[in-house]
Amino acid sequence: MPDDITYTATSPAGPPNATKQVTDEHVTRGHMPVVKLAYSADGDATPVTADANGLRVSGTVTANAGTGTLAVSNTVLSVVGTGTEAAAQRVTIATDSTGVLSIDDNGGSLTVDGTVTANAGTGTMAVSNAGTFAVQDSQKVVDNAAFTDGTTPVLPAGFIYDEVAGTVLTENDAAAARINLNRAQIGVIEDGATRGRWATVSAANALKVDGSAVTQPVSGTITAVTAITNALPAGNNNIGDVDIVSGTITTVSTVTALTTLTGGGVAHDGADAGNPIKTGARATTADITAVAAADRTDTLSDTIGYGLVRPYALHENLTQGATAAITGTASTEVIAAGAAGVRNYITSLTVINSHATVSTVVEIRDGAATVIHRGYALAAGGGYVVTFPTPLRGTAATAINAFAITTGSNVYVSGSGYRAAV
Length: 422
What we know:
four-stranded antiparallel beta sheet, mainly beta
């Protein structure tokens, strides 16, 4: 078989009557036609390589679908472009697509409109801390920073109710503060200069205070002192209120001020007990200034020491009265009745009969009928004046009256005394 076959034909892709060469590629394959794909000199050959995937093309292939549809099939579509967003081509992904869309920012940044939801599926989503996270902590201020009322924000804080001892803290540890069951914060009383030195509370809920380093004043009542081992320091030392339960104080040199004497005296209306206490009085040659009701006042005496005592009653309780002429035998009021529970006491009486000829017996009555005194008044200016060492005592809330036995006399009665509720 000849190696080469030469034939002549008219081809629309080449010049008229171009010579087409068919060569024998290999003896075992038989004769195959070789198609020339580019203009070249006669006898030149351009190899075309093909494999299981089809015809390979090296270089740029321009696809033009014309007026129809161009179908492109590829497992991976990689598009790299440039330009602005307004001029860029937009790609719509089908809702039933099961493929993977790969977006490469080419080293720049991506802008996404709307909300992006991150879903790691069933695996773990790793978050890198390579950047800076913005934390909204407007309540935080730096240590030792200034605080402005009404401006600097604050953050409410809560504490833990924990009555069981927990892990012991070490220096610079942070922990939650405690509250009690009433939500009150628990604190300690600590020394103002030395940390870690605080007051302790005993099992009996007593606050332990050690004042051995300095002299301690005592305020309040000491109910019992078993023994005082050391002498009290000299000087004017205030030891507060001291109750002596038993024993004897031999000598008290000076009591500067005694506000209340409890236990050493007997209260008003109490049973009498103990020995009397010697008292004195304030000597005066003139009246002292009056005090208000219920105020304490001095007992007065003359300059020799005799006590000044007003007879009978207070000035405010003194009373007196007088009648007009009594010419008949009707009971006539001399002193008006006192208030409920208050009696009249008569200390003196003056009786005068101005009738020229008619004398009469005069009765002093407790009320209208009860006679508590009788006297005789002669006519023509007769009568009498009497002082009662023991006052005449009337009935509570009852007037003192005068009564002339004889009709026609002309009797005047005056009386004085005091009122009391006993």
